Amino acid sequence: MPNIILECKNLYKEINDKEILTNINLKLEEKNILGLIGPNGSGKTTTIKTILSLQKITKGEIFIDNHNIKTDYKNAISQVGAIIENPDLYTYLTGLENLLIPATIYNINKERIKEVINLVGLSQRINDKVSKYSLGMKQRLGIAQAIIHKPKLLILDEPTNGLDPEGIKELRSLLLKLKEQENMTILISSHNLKELETICNKIAIIKQGKILSINDINILTKKNNNYIFELDTIKINDILDNYKIINNNMIELSIEKNDIPKIVKKLTNNNIKIYMIKEKSLTLEEAYLLKTEGNAIE
User: Fold this and answer.
1) Which tens digit of pLDDT belongs to each residue from 7-38?
2) Which residues does 254 contact at the CB level (< 8 Å), separation at least 6?
């Protein structure tokens, strides 16, 4: 049975008598990457800050690697690395000097420091001053600081903000590498749904301080009983009914899976060539808008 690395139980947060988080229940198993999404003001950053004990819990419990954040804070927080918004770096120091600060705190040996530098792809620039780094390089150095002590949980709040496409691609590759090579569990809060779709295997949707759903991304984006057929022609008016034309050679049918052989037989009997059949899925953005009744992420 997979290890539960993060668990929030019946979590509530009030600020000035206003309920910001309501009954948040969240479980994240090891080596999963969870995207936390929702509109501005929905409670994403507040949830993260309570997990990190940067804000006090009003009611409920948080466990990190089975350690209660309230009663066993030291052991719980030792299993976490985090970046909230932007990495906290000294730009007048080199990348290595910035990395040596947490390495000294955690009593990390030289081998681990070298390993992390290679892991984040900064070996060629680690002795340059951070003031000369691109935003993407600063983000990777920040992640190096966050994972120097081999935490089981990495938490990132809006990690792609301001990154160009190359920086986003490098960050994506790094996070997937951390999952596989470091067995790391990752929680990401982001507005970049297209990017989360390529990184995350789980998605939690939060709105007005409440979790609306937590699903595997494949389940969330699945559109039941809709199939795409790629044909050599779409002149099939006399063969099929109630189909939607996608483009010059693709149609969409809303049918039961068991009906596919019948459709195939009809088409082939009429000399229509079938090149592909696939189940239609929603984009993460489409699935999100359905769950939140059209409330877009700003």
Assistant:
1) 999 999 999 989 999 999 999 999 999 999 99
2) 225, 226, 242
pLDDT in tens, 34-55: 999 998 889 999 999 999 999 9
In order, the DSSP letters of 230-259 are: EES----TTT--SEEEEETTEEEEE--GGG
Q: Which amino acid is at 276?
A: M
Which residue from 122, 145, 151, 123 is spatially nearest to 134, judged by alpha carbons?
Answer: 122
Task: Name which of 214, 186, 190 is nearest 202 in CA terms.
Answer: 214
* pTM exceeds 0.90, yes or no: no
DSSP per residue over 113-182, as a string? HHHHHHHTT-TTTTTSBGGGS-HHHHHHHHHHHHHTT--SEEEEESTTTT--HHHHHHHHHHHHHHHHHS
Q: Distance between CA atoms of 254 and 113, rounded to whole angstroms?
A: 55
